């Protein structure tokens, strides 16, 4: 998983205490089948030296499905298990130290509970941010809710991928999306459900339904073609969004990084990134595995 091309919409996190008697890998596989497109190993009970077996099994599972795998709290374990990255909290290892340890290719996410912490995380070079807890949740006892207002602030300001987390269920997912979230993370609602696949599928459907709505809202009225520079060449196109341009070039399902006017555009933003005449678009296609 390339760090530059990294994005996601539905984040599933392990919590074995939520599914006694059911196998961790089977539960997480169900979540992935339902549409979870990033998985985190989070276990606050077991010492990290005893988590390597689970971490390796989750690595194998996520690799099979082409889904990024993140380890909570333990950068060394992330390295040992060949995870794609680590998730850090405000009280965990600083981002700069984790970056030194993990190198340039690994994903580093960080929890934030206020817009000031989110700004600091962006400055420090986080690849994504956890925004929450949106609601109080027994999965994170003692951590007060940051509320929907913080989701609104993040939506207005934060340009790197950020995910709403904390107490999110099928009953309140819509109001979190209404507040501007484009990515959701649910722990107990997914892995504590008798049917993690169905819950994931429904959460993912809610997220993608919003994306389609945003793209439709953002699309300008149809006009004639515009000229732009595509990979250094003058190109005429009737595509209105970066997503349409990528689709027309047959690259939608390929591993590419898209840049407009020197800025990388996250995959989740392609469908609502409007193309302007004269824009410089670079579509970089990765060949080979990794
Ligand atoms: C995606 C995501 N967001 C937030 C957290 C919480 O991390 P942290 O604040 O370090 O708390 P613990 O999970 O370690 O209890 C997370 N793990 N993942
Ligand atoms: C780890 C963490 N960090 C902020 S909220 C949270 C727990 C979210 O779990 P749930 O989805 O069960 O409320
Ligand atoms: Mg932590």
From TrEMBL:
The keyword Disulfide bond does not apply. It catalyses: 2-[(2R,5Z)-2-carboxy-4-methylthiazol-5(2H)-ylidene]ethyl phosphate + 4-amino-2-methyl-5-(diphosphooxymethyl)pyrimidine + 2 H(+) = thiamine phosphate + CO2 + diphosphate; 4-methyl-5-(2-phosphooxyethyl)-thiazole + 4-amino-2-methyl-5-(diphosphooxymethyl)pyrimidine + H(+) = thiamine phosphate + diphosphate; 2-(2-carboxy-4-methylthiazol-5-yl)ethyl phosphate + 4-amino-2-methyl-5-(diphosphooxymethyl)pyrimidine + 2 H(+) = thiamine phosphate + CO2 + diphosphate. It comes from the Bacteria. PANTHER family: THIAMINE-PHOSPHATE PYROPHOSPHORYLASE, THIAMINE-PHOSPHATE SYNTHASE. InterPro entries: Aldolase_TIM, Beta-grasp_dom_sf, Mopterin_synth/thiamin_S_b, Thi_S, ThiamineP_synth_sf, ThiamineP_synth_TenI, ThiS/MoaD-like, TMP_synthase. Condenses 4-methyl-5-(beta-hydroxyethyl)thiazole monophosphate (THZ-P) and 2-methyl-4-amino-5-hydroxymethyl pyrimidine pyrophosphate (HMP-PP) to form thiamine monophosphate (TMP). It is an enzyme of class 2 (transferase). Belongs to the thiamine-phosphate synthase family. Pfam families: ThiS, TMP-TENI. 2-[(2R,5Z)-2-carboxy-4-methylthiazol-5(2H)-ylidene]ethyl phosphate binds at residues 137-139, 167, 187-188. This is Thiamine-phosphate synthase. Pathway: Cofactor biosynthesis; thiamine diphosphate biosynthesis; thiamine phosphate from 4-amino-2-methyl-5-diphosphomethylpyrimidine and 4-methyl-5-(2-phosphoethyl)-thiazole: step 1/1. Binds 1 Mg(2+) ion per subunit. Its EC number is 2.5.1.3.
């Amino acid at each position: 998983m390339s760090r530059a091309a990294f994005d996601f919409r539905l984040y599933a996190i392990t919590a074995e205490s939520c599914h006694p008697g059911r196998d961790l890998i089977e539960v997480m596989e169900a979540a992935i089948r339902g549409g979870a497109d990033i998985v985190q190993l989070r276990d606050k009970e077991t010492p990290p030296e005893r988590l390597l077996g689970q971490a390796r099994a989750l690595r194998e599972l996520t690799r099979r499905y082409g889904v990024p795998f993140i380890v909570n709290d333990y950068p060394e374990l992330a390295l040992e298990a060949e995870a794609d990255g680590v998730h850090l909290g405000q009280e965990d290892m600083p981002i700069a130290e984790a970056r030194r340890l993990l190198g340039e290719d690994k994903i580093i996410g960080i929890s934030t509970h206020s817009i000031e912490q989110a700004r600091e995380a962006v400055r420090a070079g986080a690849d994504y941010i956890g925004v929450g807890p949106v609601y109080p949740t027994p999965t994170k006892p003692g951590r007060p809710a940051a509320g929907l207002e913080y989701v609104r602030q993040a939506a207005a300001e934060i340009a790197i991928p950020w995910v709403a987390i904390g107490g999110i269920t099928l009953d309140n997912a819509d109001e979190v999306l209404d507040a501007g979230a484009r990515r959701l993370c649910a722990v107990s609602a997914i892995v504590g459900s008798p049917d993690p696949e169905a819950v994931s599928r429904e959460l993912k459907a809610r997220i993608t339904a919003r994306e389609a709505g945003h793209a439709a809202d953002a699309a300008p009225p149809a006009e004639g073609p515009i000229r732009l520079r595509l990979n250094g060449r003058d190109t005429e196109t009737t595509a209105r969004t970066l997503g349409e341009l990528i689709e027309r070039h047959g690259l939608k399902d390929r591993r590419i990084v898209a840049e407009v006017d020197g800025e990388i555009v996250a995959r989740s933003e392609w469908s609502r990134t409007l193309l302007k005449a004269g824009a410089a678009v670079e579509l970089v296609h990765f060949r080979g595995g990794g």
